[in-house]
Amino acid sequence: MERLSKQKLVLVGLTLFSMFFGAGNLIFPPYLGALAGTNTWIAMTGFAVTAIGFPVLGVVAVARSGGLDKLAGRVHPKFAFVFTLLIYLSIGPCLAIPRTASTSFEMAVVPFLKAEGSGALAQFLYSVFFFAIAFAVSLKPDQLTDRLGKILTPCLLTLIVVIFAGCMIHPAGSYGAPAKAYGTNPFVKGFLEGYLTMDTIAALNFGIIISLNVQAMGIRREASVVRETIGAGFIAGGVLLLVYSALAHVGAVTGGTMGSGENGAQTLNQAVRFLYGNAGLMMLAAIFFIACLNTCIGLISCCSRYFSTIVPKVGYGAWAFLFALVSLVISNIGLNRILEVSVPVLNAIYPVAIVLILLSFGFRDGKKWNGVYVCSIGFTGIASVLLALEQAGLGFLNAGLSKLPLYDMGLGWIGPAIAGIAAGVLARYCRK
Q1: Alpha carbon distance 261, 146 (integer Å)
Q2: With 0-12 CB in 10 A as exposed, 13-18 as middle and 19+ as buried, what is 262?
Q3: Sign of CA dihedral 374, 375, 380, 383
Q4: Would you call 108 exposed, middle or buried from its count of C-beta atoms within 10 A (0-12, 13-18, 19+)?
Q5: Maximum CA extent, the chain
Q6: Cα–Cα distance between 107 and 31 in angstroms, integer?
Q7: Going by fewer Cβ within 10 Å, which terminus of the chain is more open, N or C?
């Protein structure tokens, strides 16, 4: 039986962790801790379900089904093509890849700019530098384990450990009283915050790249590749849990004394300033740069591989260059504008991804349960698109959508998803 050594499997797991762990993953846990206070660990439990559980399940689902296109194909081949294309575009060159450069620029460069009016030029030069590195590393997608797992990820984890250790040795204060949002039902609030990390969508992309790295280590049998990819997913999930917990603690002890700030970036900024002064700002800049670069490399790699399969005349390297160039241009629009567009788009796609992943475990035979896939994905897709349009400003939709179960919690798509599953099961048994 083909198996990776424990050391190699850990390296692959760290590679997957680094691909997941971008700027958003840095920001959400400390802000959660700052706001949840004494309810931090209840809220973290909910956060872990959606920020770790669903992404790991996504890696498992894609690995077992043989790829996102085959998993989505259980609904319909045309749906598989459109959904997969939307996934790769939204979490690739149109939204997520440019956001890695914009976010890291905001945290790693802007705090050190002194001359007013130099921001636009600085951002352009930074994005050229950032995407040049990302493009160069992504040219060898089967070697990401050597470049991310062995080099960049250990550096990132070391810097986070230094901040966490500082809070343990010299805490800014103690856990404060929870904010109103975390006072009544902290588990649900944490659950919803984890949902916003959008890593479940990333998981549908990253599984194939991790499989390539497993194959590059000498694993050839398909079943063995799937098993090792799943093992790497669970290792990545374990590291995410440790890092999220450490960051939540940093936020809780900082927020209890200094306040939460407007977002998690400000919470971390306050923490490192208190612990290490200006050196802390340099440390935080390095953390954001490495985290965003890792994610950017992973996204360019998986998107380029996908598009080189559907348009083989354009090779992998050409697609990687094109995505880096397009992302460079879009990233200079500015982080706020990118976020304005990305949130409703991702909110329309994310529920469909969650339901598709869960169906792969509950209804593994796609042919037998095709009706369940069609009805549940159809109902979920319609509801999530309408909810996203309402969020984008079409207020007239509120009258109808507000009647959906769990609408007030931001989970109005769950009712249609369950109704779709029930309709699919009923339709199958009625045909017998």
Answers
A1: 38
A2: exposed
A3: positive
A4: buried
A5: 74
A6: 16
A7: C
Instruction: Give the integer Cα–Cα distance in Å for 369 and 194.
Output: 30
Neighbours of 2 (CB within 10 A): 14
Query: In degrees rounded to 5, what are phi and psi of residue 135?
Result: -65, -45
At residue 351, what are phi and psi to the nearest 5 degrees?
-60, -40
Q: What does the block give as tokens for 391?
A: 């969020």
Question: Where does residue 261 fall: left (phi above 0), alpha (psi -120 to 50 degrees), or beta otherwise?
Answer: left
| Cα(320)–Cα(139) distance, integer angstroms | 7
DSSP-derived secondary structure letter, 184: S
Q: How far is CA 169 from the centre of its chain?
A: 31
**Neighbouring C-beta atoms of residue 329, cutoff 10 Å:** 13
Q: How far apart are the first and last CA of the chain?
A: 42
Please state, in angstroms and rounded to a whole number, the distance separating the CA atoms of residues 319 and 17: 24
Q: What is the pLDDT along the chain (432 residues), one digit of tens a residue?
A: 578 888 888 888 888 888 788 767 888 899 899 999 899 999 999 999 989 999 989 888 888 887 888 889 999 999 999 888 888 887 788 877 888 888 788 778 877 776 555 678 888 999 999 999 999 888 876 666 666 666 777 888 888 888 889 888 888 788 888 888 898 889 988 988 887 677 888 888 777 777 777 887 778 787 888 888 888 889 999 999 999 999 999 989 987 666 656 677 778 888 888 888 888 888 888 888 888 888 888 889 888 988 998 888 888 999 999 999 999 988 887 656 666 666 677 778 888 999 999 999 989 888 889 999 999 999 999 999 999 888 777 878 888 888 899 888 778 999 999 999 999 999 887 765
Q: Within a 10 A sphere around the Cβ of 242, how many other Cβ atoms?
A: 14
Would you call 324 helix, strand, or coil by DSSP? Answer: helix
- Nearest Cα neighbor of 349 from 389, 384, 397 is 384
Distant-in-sequence, close-in-space partners of 53: CB < 8 Å, separation ≥ 6: 237
Amino acid identity for residue 300 in this structure: I
The full DSSP string for 233-287 is HHHHHHHHHHHHHHHHHHHHHHHHHH---SSHHHHHHHHHHHHHTHHHHHHHHHH
